[in-house]
Specification:
About 35% of the residues are buried. It is elongated and about 65 Å long. A five-stranded mixed β-sheet has the order 2-1-5-3-4, sandwiched between helices. It is α+β, with helices and mostly antiparallel strands. Helix content is about 25%, strand content about 10%. Helix 2 packs across helix 5. The longest helix is centred in the last third of the chain and has 22 residues. It has two domains: about 80 residues, Beta-grasp domain (Ubiquitin-like (UB roll)), CATH 3.10.20.30; about 110 residues, Orthogonal Bundle (DNA polymerase, domain 1), CATH 1.10.150. The chain starts with 11 loop residues before the first strand and ends in a 42-residue tail after the last helix. A hairpin with a 2-residue loop joins strand 3 and strand 4.
């Protein structure tokens, strides 16, 4: 076999990436990451290159429904994968609830990390709903310690849980407090919807009545709940 020289083209492979519901057949250098394929080949620049070492979370996307750092993934290993970027979260002109909550809660400043924060938050909500524990989740009690929630039941997204689960997404502007509040808002919105679809016992407290169940998509000109921080519209103007 002839030795490989610097003049030879680098080894390449042809893969199909299903991005935001659309298939894309690409021939890529085997060293190409999913992040570079999205940005350089598909012009999806919402996912940001921050550290390029999997340490900041700016490149977070959803791969087959799970959040991951796209700068660490070789694209050739994800042939056939379903990838969702921040551009694919909205339903036409209607923002995803997490996107809307970030706007309503002013959960950003410069915005560079925001696409990764939003994709990670979407993943956090799904993980907690599916019962995946985090480092701070209380262990399930065994027979010797009494009854507890069943393994795999939804994990309550307390502020501590949210902070732990989002700890891989760095915001150098320090918008963490409002990011946590935005995720809590979507948590409460989903809880309220679940309560509406379940039979209601007279006299029982509903999710809408519970403290903290305060999120609703904000309409321009409608005052926000007392104590809520100012919001920004899609052009960035403070409200």
């Amino acid at each position: 076999m002839a030795p490989h020289t610097a003049q030879d083209p680098p080894p390449a492979s042809t893969v199909t990436l299903h991005v935001n519901g659309a298939p894309h057949r690409l021939t890529l250098d085997n060293r190409t990451t999913v992040l570079d394929a999205l940005r350089e080949r598909l012009d999806l620049t919402g996912s940001k290159k921050g550290c390029d070492h999997g340490q900041c979370g700016a490149c977070t996307v959803l791969v087959d429904g799970r959040r991951t750092n796209s700068c660490l993934l070789f694209a050739v290993a994800y042939d056939g994968a379903e990838i969702t970027t921040v551009e694919g979260l909205a339903d036409g002109d209607r923002l995803h609830p997490v996107q809307q909550a970030f706007l309503d809660r002013d959960g950003f400043q410069c915005g560079y990390c925001t696409p990764g924060q939003i994709c990670s938050a979407v993943g956090v909500l799904a993980e907690a709903a599916d019962g995946h524990p985090s480092h701070v989740t209380a262990p399930v009690a065994g027979p010797a310690t009494g009854p507890s929630a069943a393994q795999g039941s939804p994990v309550p997204l307390t502020p501590e849980e949210i902070r732990e689960r989002m700890s891989g997404n760095i915001c150098r502007c320090g918008a963490y407090a409002n990011i946590v509040a935005a995720i809590q808002d979507v948590r409460d919105l989903r809880g309220a919807r679940g309560a509406q679809s379940a039979p209601h016992t007279p006299g029982a407290q509903t999710a809408q009545d519970a403290p903290g169940a305060r999120y609703a998509p904000h309409a321009p000109g409608v005052p926000i709940a007392p104590g809520a921080p100012p919001t920004r519209d899609t052009q960035g103007a403070a409200r």
